Amino acid sequence: MRVHLGSDHAGLELKDHLVGWLADQGHEVVDHGPFVYDALDDYPVFCLRAAEGVAADREVGRDSLGVVIGGSGNGEQIAANKVKGVRAALVWSEETATLAREHNDANVISVGGRMHSVDEMTRFIGVFLATPYSNEERHTRRIGMLADYERTGDLPPLPASALKPQT
């Protein structure tokens, strides 16, 4: 599998570790930077490129996932989710890594380089990469609603349970 990486200065240590670790696991790594520590760098520069790489690969049918890393992972997740076709999830545990794949078919995860040790984050990423999408109908339906909204801008219809009773 091809794995796209992007970070900012707060995620640089983990990103650099992942380049070797992922290669050792048999993955093809695409490192979108940064390549040197710069405390003033801007995460969108690198995280958008990683997410774009995943989206482009998936568009042509290539098996590809992405990992974006920052201090908390929040901004990096937001950036990745701006890319059409990307579903990025913030991961802070093995369980959230599993659920991101099983329930949301996330193709990018974001982790906080200042929130966990390198070993913990490496475990989260390993779980994410190894977990398949469940293909359950309810999850597929929900992902379809998001894809439709992304494509058309039209909100999904409200279910009967969300409508106010007439008095």
What report would you give on this structure?
46% of the residues lie in helices and 15% in strands. The chain is an alpha/beta fold and 167 residues long. The chain has a five-stranded parallel beta sheet, with helices on both faces. Strand 4, helix 4 and strand 5 (108-112) form a beta-alpha-beta unit. Helix 2 (43-59) crosses helix 3. The longest helix is centred in the first third of the chain and has 17 residues, at 43-59. The termini are far apart. The model has no long low-confidence stretch (mean pLDDT 96).
Give keywords.
167 residues; 46% helix; five-stranded parallel β-sheet; 6 helices; alpha/beta; single chain; globular
Question: What topology emerges from the helices and strands here?
Answer:
Elements: E1 2-7, H1 12-24, E2 28-31, H2 43-59, E3 64-70, H3 74-81, E4 88-90, H4 94-102, E5 108-112, H5 118-130, H6 137-152
Parallel strand pairs: 1-2, 1-3, 3-5, 4-5
**Biggest sheet character:** 5 strands, parallel
Task: Specify Rg, calculated over alpha carbons.
Answer: 17 Å
What is the averaged pLDDT score?
96
* SS-based class: alpha/beta
Secondary-structure element sequence?
A: EHEHEHEHEHH
Q: Based on the structure, what is the oligomeric state of the protein chains?
A: single chain
Broad shape? globular
The N- and C-terminal alpha carbons lie at a distance of 57 Å
Strand order of the largest sheet: 2-1-3-5-4
**Low-pLDDT residue spans:** none
What is the β-strand count? 5
Fraction of residues in helix: 40-55%
Strand content: 5-15%
